Amino acid sequence: MGKKGSPRSPRPPSMHVKPSFGMKNHQDKCLENLLGSDPSFGRRASGGDHSWNKDMLLNGLKDDDKRIGGSVVTFSGKRQMWLGKHSRLMVFAFGLMGSLFLLDSLMFSIIHSINLKNSSHQREPNGLKDVQMDYVHEKKGPTIMYDRLLNLASSALAEKEFRGDSVKLWEEPHKQASQWKPCADKTGPLYQGKLTKSSGFILVSANGGLNQQRVAICNAVAVASLLNATLVLPKFLYSNVWNDPSQFGDIYQEEYFMDLLKDEVNIVKELPPHLQSLDFEAIGSLITDADIVKEAKPIDFVKIVYPLLLRNGVVHFLGFGNRLGFDPLPFHLQRLRCKCNFHALKFVPKIQEIGSLLVKRIRKHDGARSLLDKQLLGNYISDLPPEGHYASTGSSKYLALHMRFEMDMVAYSVCDFGGGETEKKELQAYRESHFPLLVERLKNSRSVSPEELRKLGKCPLTPEEAALMLSALGFKRSTYIYLAGSNIYGGQSRMHPFTSLYPNLVTKEDFLTPSELAPLRNFSSQLAALDLIACATADVFAMTDSGSQFSSLVSGYRVYYGGGHAPTVRPNKKRIAAILSENGTIEWAAFQDRVRKMIDEGQRVRIRGFGRSIYRQPRCPECMCKGH
Prior knowledge:
It is found in: Membrane. The chain is of the alpha/beta class.
């Protein structure tokens, strides 16, 4: 499976004939609308049976017509002999034949309708079960908020499809990005090395999913170095939300992690036996999020945690999400966090191997393209190929999209997404069930209208809005789009506007067989690692929510290892809401221009600002080195 030297896996048929996400029927209808009635476009492979049935029925009608025509000739030849005697019989015969003809036509219509219905039923999307929320039981029609802009986008994409692809779309717009190189693995000039005597042991039980756990690990490394403590390999708390029992060694290479960081911090796999039986809460060594403020400064850990270490020899951080702030922090600790995130946390071979299969099949190519590939996939991706090799092998580009439109996020936002009263009641019921504190807070605070929330940029982008953004940027209808995650609220009704513009939407399930995915099937964090790999190594990465930790980690990886050749599309939700509010009047050229300016501003090369995430914006002296 994906080992070096293995035959290249063919591109799965889904890329050509079965667009992912279970939207095939909607895509074909849209294609017909875009390209008119030209019979050379939009043909369905599944339409063969229907055409054959129709031809058979039409031939049957022609045979009936011949029989009817023969009868008419016979009647004409003998009409002089029996016209007067049998006039009533003749009227009856004509009436009978007319009835038979009408009955035949009626039967044809019924059979035709049944064929269409059966054909539609056979094309019912299978992938929809992966993206439709169980909370929504009834089947809904498409939910559309910007019908006029969708029509303009559809026309623009149809016109653009037969033109050459713009190279600028797939490149970083600012050359200064290539001047920054990774160097967090190099020791800083002022670092004196770790002290020989440890102050005690630090345990961390990290909560959340893959992204939150990763942040917690690297923050724990920095805190252990700050307090001159020995770090025990972090544990991951089991959550009913994630339903994943994975631990550190199931996702990351333990020995590699410990060895790479050994010069900065002591790391062990387990506590010494004499400390394992301690009741940490009873001795005061259990530290929860309530004990340490969010984005705490180093001095907070020195004052609160260090005395406990010296007294008890051990502390246990329970949760430990964003407990360590980004500034102010000593240079060597900031660099250590970068080294942890971008160098020390390597996925286990199992994830690297399956991830390499996924990337190879999306690209139709076996070779690595950048340092991103080598860092994330290790030896499971071959070395950089000779120049010009990509073109000769037909390697294809793809855009990866992280679409944050899950049920919990949609409900928590308290925004209106155009689904009417049914949707409002549904989301309110979900809030009352899952976010009772939010409901209580909303009752006791000043009411903010959904319209105002949208203007403030507080609403997650819908799939429809994401599609309009991509079309305004100039991505062609035929662009292959990898979708990270699949729990899109509203399922088919929400995705219809997106897939009507971009039918080549795929997920990891389209490229990997059930047996290939089986080792990761019941482990959400390990499956999320595949999405991280596919997004980080994509030619272009687009997000719909810049505040997402997943998007932040992916975009940070692309900045750190991309060499200025890994563009990221990061919308400003407040600005795009203002642009979309003019749906009824704005012309397509003006819409394109404003969206492109918004994205271009987000792609400008900036040094990390004070207090900004080192994981999302590693372009700073602590993490990267600037060349010429």
